[in-house]
Structures are given as structure tokens and as C-alpha cells.
Design a protein that fits this description.
It contains seven helices and eight strands. It has a domain of 117 residues: Rossmann fold (3-Layer(aba) Sandwich).
């Protein structure tokens, strides 16, 4: 089966080999650099269209930093509002960890890469506390290291556009 997103990511060199520490704290010999690939408008647009084609939602939210350009692109493609979930509360201005309105809305959470699901679980809790109804997370790449099971335990479905194993099949080691 053809996966346009996997092909685009591979063509942009999104897979890197070396010794990396992931957001989960785990070490890995493979790093998926989605953030750099997202700077290409063609890649970002294709990801947004793929998400809009697969999901029903009233608002979209992204976790800073990697999920934000995806949320904005999905918002524009769907004509629906977006929100940003900050990693930490800022100590100035209006404060808060969520920018945008999710109260009463079925909110789709988008992320660039999922590993264990820790980052998105925290964001789901914040969105739900703000009144958002979150039952689906779309990730561009799932590293297949437990995020799906962790989210399922919270009543949330993980929808990966690409699995790491699929992406590695297209990758030429650096």
C-alpha cells in the first residue's frame, strides 16, 4: 500500500541514525525529525489533508512545539479553530497552558511523533479540564513503543499516519 506521507518524510531525510535521547527520556539509534520536514509547505499541506480526510472534529489542538504547525495547517484545511497546548504555563500576560477555545468542542489532538504517549496524555488531561472532548489523537509518526496502549487506557484512539517500521523501510541509513 502506498503511503504518501511516508514517502514525503523519507524524501525529506526525516529519519536520522545515531545516538539520541527522546522526549520520553529513552535512548534510541533512530530519530525522526518531523519538525524539519514540516518546514516544507508541501509536506505540511499533505499531512493536513491526510488528517482532515481521516478525522471528524470541531477543533484541533497541537502540543508545542511539534504539534503547532500541524494544528494550524489542519485548522486552515478544515476551516475549524485551533488551540495550542503549552508545555509549561507562562508567568506573564494571561498565563494558562491552552491558547484557543476548546470548551464543549470535540477536539482532535495532533502530534508530530509519539513514543510512549506521555506528552499527549498530559495535553489530553489539560484539554479535558478546559472542557474539550478529546477521543482521538493523530500522530504523523508512531514509534510503536506503547503510545497506542497508553492512550487507549484513557479512552483515546491513536491514529498514526505512518508507523516507524514503515518509514524505516524507505530509509537509507546516513
Amino acid at each position: 500500500m502506498v503511503n504518501l506521507i511516508a514517502d514525503l518524510l523519507a524524501a525529506r531525510g526525516a529519519v536520522r541514525h545515531g545516538d539520541f535521547v527522546l522526549a520520553s527520556g529513552a535512548r534510541s539509534k533512530v530519530y525522526v525529525d518531523i519538525k524539519a520536514a514540516l518546514t516544507d509547505p508541501g509536506v505540511l499541506s499533505a499531512i493536513a489533508v491526510a488528517i482532515v480526510d481521516r478525522c471528524s472534529f470541531e477543533a484541533v489542538a497541537g502540543v508545542a512545539v511539534g504539534g503547532v504547525p500541524i494544528a494550524v495547517a489542519v485548522s486552515l484545511a478544515a476551516g475549524k479553530p485551533y488551540a495550542v497546548v503549552r508545555n509549561v504555563e507562562k508567568g506573564h500576560g494571561t498565563g494558562g497552558r491552552i491558547i484557543g477555545e476548546v470548551k464543549g468542542r470535540r477536539t482532535l489532538l495532533v502530534e508530530d511523533v509519539t513514543t510512549t504517549g506521555g506528552s499527549v496524555l498530559g495535553a489530553i488531561r489539560l484539554l479535558r479540564e478546559a472542557g474539550g472532548r478529546v477521543d482521538t489523537v493523530v500522530t504523523v509518526v508512531d514509534r510503536e513503543e506503547g503510545a497506542g496502549a497508553a492512550l487507549a487506557a484513557e479512552g483515546v484512539t491513536l491514529v498514526p499516519l505512518v508507523l516507524l517500521s514503515e518509514l524505516l523501510g524507505r530509509d537509507e541509513p546516513i
